[in-house]
Amino acid sequence: MNALLQRVYFGLVGLFLVLPIIVVAGVSVNAKQDLAFPPKGFSLGWYGEIFANPEWRNALVASITLAALSAALALLIALPLAWFLWRRHAPWANVFQLLGIAPFTLPPVITALGLLTFWATTGFYGQPATAVISHAIFFVTLPLVTLSLGFSSIDRSLVEAAATMGADDRTVFRTVVLPLILPYLISGYAFAFVLSLNEYIVAYMTIGFTMETLPIKIFNALRYGYTPTMASVTILFVAIAATIFGLVARFGDLPKLLGAMSSRD
Amino acid sequence: MRREAPQKLTDYAPLAFPAGMLIVFFVVPFATMIAVSFFRRDPAGFYSPDFVFDNYARFLSLFFGKVLGFSLFLAVAVAICCVVIALPFTYLLSRTKRRTQVLWLVALLSVLSLSEVIIGFAWSTLFSRTAGITNLLVMLGIMSEPIALNPSFGAVLTAMVYQALPYTVLVLYPALVRLDPTLTEAARTLGASPLKAFFTVVVPALRNTVVATLIMVFIFALGSYLLPQILGRPQHWTLSVLITDQAIYQSNMPFAAAMAVFLVLVTLGLVALTVYAGRKGEAA
């Protein structure tokens, strides 16, 4: 009875989460340019349209480039910071940890507006590089959190042993620390990448008038009516996110990454 | 290797790049925004430097009061809905097999990472007349003809709960995984039904977690800016929408900045409250 009740509850929550995705998937295979569900006819043409139509293709390329670069920059900011906080005893340096987490905790429109005023004042407004930096700052929280977790799980006696054998900081980092935190490094990159791919407001306020990322493209298209390419792009994005998080779960410890310290089973 | 205080200046070297980036591209923009909120609007360009309180004084209008009131009300409603749905769900999830947990976590993360644009588009499709959920009800014979369910308050609320629910589950998850299972076992041994054990043991034990989660989801919901635009009417617009509108379409940066500063203050106040609730939780 209770097991049944639990199944029903899980089923309802699951249904709520997938229902919009099912409908959009259905809409994306309409044969003609209809917004109809159940779909009228069947065609995968709208998926081809993402790559065939230069506007959508450019938006896709812009989004992926932005996500790849900004996640890498976020990692470059987070790694030395997390390493320093783990290696050194410097309480005041925690301020930077706080600064790294703040942009993500505040409502995104605030970070977006701050960056917009900054880029407008300094005269770089609208240049593609500004979006990369903006996203890196906005999402630096994610690699920072995963890396802090990674560093805290390193057994310090391992590092001590290496140091006793005469390894300097650089060697210890390369041969002991880096292999141990690699999963956290990769998952931090993955989180930042996926979220950057989907981010709208910061991208819109920095490069919205000169370039289109996919979320901006979808929103602009949404204003002028409907095209099934929006639906196929949506499904593509769901698939990308699910694949990346699936890989993180496959090669890393997802429950632990999300804060469950006691890994059971 | 024990953690040691930095000895030489070169020991600080790793900090240089992260600290520089965060200061130049977060602290400085933030300070610029605060400064701009006191500037005067320049109809020709962006703004001209000044020190006026006009932008803040504009808050004291009925229109602004209504928008603020609605934003807070909407965020409270979303937070309550999410916690009510997510608390039993996360509790049950934390008691399942690891494999099941991982599968759900992947699904939740995938939904959580979805762009607001995409969530808005998906729900507007689901609520539309031609491709919406009412078509299903017509097929089942419950309704006579399909209708459009948006724009409406219900549509905005549903989509925002959809957006915030995975976040709520992930915020609750660590606390619930660490919850001592012997607590409920003891209650069960003493004859309490699972439901009674949940409400009399689990919920009180997590009181502070629940309060902290409510506040975090509230802040998360406060940040929503596209869903009210896509699924609601102008009276359903939130403070975030208004800030974007002023900054981009009305080119009134000083007023947008003033509203943003105000939103920061509200948020910071709530974060302080969360920390306070957490501290009390640890002490208890």
TrEMBL record, chain A:
CDD domains: TM_PBP2 (cd06261). The chain crosses the membrane at residues 7-29, 59-86, 98-120, 132-151, 172-195, 201-219, 231-252. Its main location: membrane. GO terms for biological process: transmembrane transport. It comes from the Bacteria. It is found in: Cell inner membrane; Cell membrane. One of its GO terms (cellular component) is plasma membrane. The keyword rRNA-binding does not apply. It is a multi-pass membrane protein. Residues 60-248 form the ABC transmembrane type-1 domain. Keywords: Cell inner membrane, Cell membrane, Membrane, Transmembrane, Transmembrane helix, Transport. InterPro entries: MetI-like, MetI-like_sf. The keyword Thylakoid does not apply. Belongs to the binding-protein-dependent transport system permease family. This is Putative spermidine/putrescine transport system permease protein. It comes from Shinella fusca. The lineage of its organism: Bacteria, Pseudomonadati, Pseudomonadota, Alphaproteobacteria, Hyphomicrobiales.
TrEMBL record, chain B:
Gene3D superfamilies: MetI-like (1.10.3720.10). It is found in: Cell membrane. Keywords: Cell membrane, Membrane, Transmembrane, Transmembrane helix, Transport. It is a multi-pass membrane protein. The chain crosses the membrane at residues 12-39, 59-90, 102-123, 153-176, 197-227, 255-278. One of its GO terms (cellular component) is plasma membrane. It comes from Shinella fusca. One of its GO terms (biological process) is transmembrane transport. The lineage of its organism: Bacteria, Pseudomonadati, Pseudomonadota, Alphaproteobacteria, Hyphomicrobiales. It comes from the Bacteria. It holds the Pfam family BPD_transp_1. Coiled coil: none annotated. This is Putative spermidine/putrescine transport system permease protein. The keyword Transmembrane applies. Its main location: membrane. The keyword tRNA-binding does not apply. InterPro entries: MetI-like, MetI-like_sf. Residues 68-274 form the ABC transmembrane type-1 domain. PANTHER family: INNER MEMBRANE ABC TRANSPORTER PERMEASE PROTEIN YDCU-RELATED, INNER MEMBRANE ABC TRANSPORTER PERMEASE PROTEIN YDCU-RELATED-RELATED.
